[in-house]
Design goal:
globular; five-stranded parallel beta sheet; six-stranded antiparallel beta sheet; Rossmann fold
């Protein structure tokens, strides 16, 4: 990791995204700079290391920004609970101070791919760094060709940001949402995101792909993309 100093930010938003019956709570938090401090710029897909002062039992962890780099208010995150740190984050009060290190990582720098089609693929909270990308793409929509998002979730209880994704059509961004486990009334794809991709069989001759999620998902998606003729040098990871 890059040698980046640690600084303080404070919590300004903390909202539950999942239904109460969901087995793994997911929250959306917003961190803003302290008074007089500047927000550090970042590339879509980059991440920071977050820690809670005075909580040594809650080891700091890395989280990708879900906000657009042009959002001057602060950094927004989509956080899956279940660790000592994230369980503390879920219960923090507005105004709480947090230790932040970064931004860091390669991110998804698409500036070298202007004129290309773009495919974003992610599962679960891997949607967070892709949200940063699609918000950046909206601001630069005229510089790219077709844009499609493949998002995957375990069940309908685990859906995230689907209301926002449903509105992306007005920016000429297509969205495919898959469930690993379908149910009666679900009309979308059932299975993994790479299965939806394989069914669509998009033309990869002028496409760049951003992948975000668990390593097993990333490996499976890369295999599917390469079988469809996508160039490995145009399959991007953010770390």
């Amino acid at each position: 990791m890059q040698n980046v100093p640690t600084y303080r930010m404070h919590l300004t938003e903390n909202a539950m995204l999942t239904a109460p019956e969901c087995d793994v709570p997911i929250v959306r938090i917003m961190l803003e700079p302290l008074a007089g401090a500047l927000l550090r710029p970042f590339i879509p897909g980059q991440f920071v290391r977050i820690g809670i002062p005075g909580k040594p039992e809650a080891a700091p962890a890395y989280f990708a920004m879900a906000s657009a780099p042009t959002d001057s208010r602060g950094y927004e995150f989509v956080v899956k609970c279940g660790s000592p740190l994230t369980d503390h984050l879920k219960d923090l009060r507005i105004g709480s101070s947090l230790e932040v290190e970064g931004p860091m990582g390669k991110g998804f720098d698409l500036s070298a791919f202007e004129g290309s089609d773009v495919i974003l693929m992610g599962v679960g909270t891997g949607i967070a760094p892709l949200r940063s990308v699609w918000r950046w793409l909206i601001d630069h929509r005229e510089k790219f060709g077709s844009i499609k998002i493949y998002a995957g979730f375990l069940t309908s209880m685990h859906l995230l940001l689907t209301d926002e994704m449903a509105g992306l059509g007005e920016h000429h961004i297509d969205v495919s949402v898959s469930l690993a486990t379908g149910h009666e009334g679900w009309s979308g794809p059932i299975g993994y995101v790479q299965h939806a991709l394989e069914n669509d069989a998009p033309d990869g001759s002028n496409a760049v792909v951003c992948l975000a999620g668990m390593s097993a998902m990333v490996d499976a998606c890369k295999e599917s993309l390469q079988s469809l003729g996508f160039n490995e040098s145009r399959i991007l990871l953010n770390y």
